[in-house]
């Protein structure tokens, strides 16, 4: 990405000066534009001061647009570690040398004061044990998991300024995906035929959210027109809303009965994805990997990559369901699910076909009593039961984006809306809409 592609934010439109693109060349700038116009609402004081100082220091050397882009590039490099073409990074490093050194000295001094304050607060807590001291120590602990704005400040507001407010697109459910997400967000969703048709024999449909038309489509009949409008609507909301997709190869807790009792392991073959195409000779990924030199087995120079899931034992009280007790009963399964609920484990719990139809029915009831979601997949002897914790969309976004919780990051893929791309540059890649627009 070149420096001209670096996102910038402006609250006003300015007259742009067309100058030579060579940064080192001194240009004649009138200096009439106001640097303060480029401050955005989400920026902390520290973040803005650094960007402002950069622009003020070089306002007489560059035209407005180029300087704003260079300043944003400097901020992205300093706070987020972004990388750009070598020529751009050398230029920005040279321009920001004095400014960056002064900023880093101030930050180091501030951190030193913070650690001293934390030490004093800990001493107060030991002596007085007051609630105020406890609160201070807790707020200063480095283990705090809440991610703050760049440079400090208040926690990031995930939904502030978004066009569709708290609407989150959970990429599942096929053609009903958008409707289901609107119901969750308590938004009105409607698909209807347009009153006026453009041509005879051509139908036109439109999609509305809260009575506002967001997409239209046309086709030979109304069904095709609605599908075309739906595809346009999905592309639009994916640009302006958070999108969440379940990782098909996520870790899943596998519970299986055997002659030696109930065994608990970890698998990446979840029951709701067993129908997905595997990496065989009919798979495109198989051929791509073969062209790259893969001959089978684990990945890595020494084929050290894992082919089989690592075994895992979820203890249940003193006994543990991995013990050699072939007489585990319903009470044991209830205790297992209870332990699962009380833990911070967000993986699905999958009961294999070795459990009978009657046992699966009982497990459905137990899951319901604990507020869990339970679904069965497969037919006959391959029937499996999948038990899942009910997690809110905002909770998922907070854990993945703000806290970077590895348990959630392994389970969910997240795409951020266009307006939040500068806050979460690692989550801007578009998620696949395959099987959701058919």
Automatic annotation (TrEMBL):
SUPFAM superfamilies linked to this entry: dsRNA-binding domain-like (SSF54768), R3H domain (SSF82708)
Taxonomy, superkingdom: Eukaryota
Region feature (Disordered): 1-26
Record domain G-patch: where: 281-326
PROSITE patterns, alphabetized: G_PATCH (PS50174), R3H (PS51061), XTBD (PS51827)
Composition-biased stretches (Basic residues): 9-19
A molecular function GO annotation: nucleic acid binding
InterPro entries tied to this protein: dsRBD_dom, G_patch_dom, R3H_dom, R3H_dom_sf, R3H_NRF, XTBD
Signal peptide: none
Gene3D superfamilies: R3H-like domain
XRN2-binding (XTBD) domain boundaries: 35-119
GO biological process terms, semicolon-separated: regulation of gene expression
UniProt-listed CDD domains: R3H_NRF
R3H domain sequence ranges: 327-391
Name under which the protein is recorded: NF-kappa-B-repressing factor
Species this chain originates from: Drosophila rubida
């Amino acid at each position: 990405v070149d420096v001209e592609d670096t996102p910038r934010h402006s609250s006003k439109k300015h007259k742009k000066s067309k100058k030579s693109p060579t940064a080192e060349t001194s240009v004649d700038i009138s200096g009439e534009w106001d640097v303060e116009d480029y401050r955005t609402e989400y920026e902390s004081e520290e973040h803005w001061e650094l960007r402002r100082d950069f622009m003020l220091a070089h306002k007489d050397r560059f035209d407005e647009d180029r300087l704003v882009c260079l300043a944003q590039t400097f901020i992205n490099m300093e706070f987020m570690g972004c990388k750009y073409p070598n020529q751009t990074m050398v230029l920005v490093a040279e321009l920001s040398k004095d400014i960056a050194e002064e900023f880093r000295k101030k930050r180091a001094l501030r951190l030193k004061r913070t650690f001293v304050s934390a030490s004093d607060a800990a001493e107060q807590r030991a002596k007085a044990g007051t609630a105020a001291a406890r609160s201070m120590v807790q707020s200063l602990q480095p283990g705090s998991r809440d991610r703050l704005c760049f440079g400090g400040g208040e926690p990031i507001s995930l939904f502030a300024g978004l066009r569709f407010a708290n609407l989150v697109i959970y990429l599942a459910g096929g053609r009903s995906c958008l409707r289901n997400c609107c119901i969750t967000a308590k938004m009105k969703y409607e698909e209807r035929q347009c009153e006026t048709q453009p041509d005879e024999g051509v139908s036109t449909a439109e999609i509305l959210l809260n009575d506002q038309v967001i997409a239209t489509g046309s086709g030979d009949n109304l069904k095709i027109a609605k599908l075309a409008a739906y595809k346009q609507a999905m592309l639009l909301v994916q640009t302006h809303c958070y999108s969440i997709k379940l990782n098909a190869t996520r870790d899943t807790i596998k519970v299986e009965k055997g002659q030696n009792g109930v065994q608990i392991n970890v698998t990446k073959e979840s029951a709701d994805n067993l129908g997905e195409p595997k990496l065989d000779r009919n798979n495109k990924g198989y051929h791509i990997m073969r062209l790259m030199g893969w001959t089978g087995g684990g990945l890595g120079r020494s084929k050290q990559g894992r082919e089989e899931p690592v075994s895992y034992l979820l203890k249940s009280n003193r006994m543990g369901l991995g013990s050699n007790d072939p007489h585990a009963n319903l009470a044991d399964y209830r205790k297992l699910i209870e332990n699962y609920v009380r833990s911070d484990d967000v993986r699905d719990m999958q009961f294999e076909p070795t459990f009978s139809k009657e046992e699966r029915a009982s497990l459905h009831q137990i899951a319901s009593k604990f507020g869990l979601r339970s679904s069965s997949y497969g037919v006959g002897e391959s029937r499996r039961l999948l038990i899942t914790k009910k997690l809110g969309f905002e909770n998922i976004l907070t854990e993945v984006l703000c806290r970077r919780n590895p348990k959630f990051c392994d389970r969910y893929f997240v795409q951020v809306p266009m307006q939040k791309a500068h806050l979460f540059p690692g989550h801007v890649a578009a998620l696949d809409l395959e099987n959701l627009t058919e």
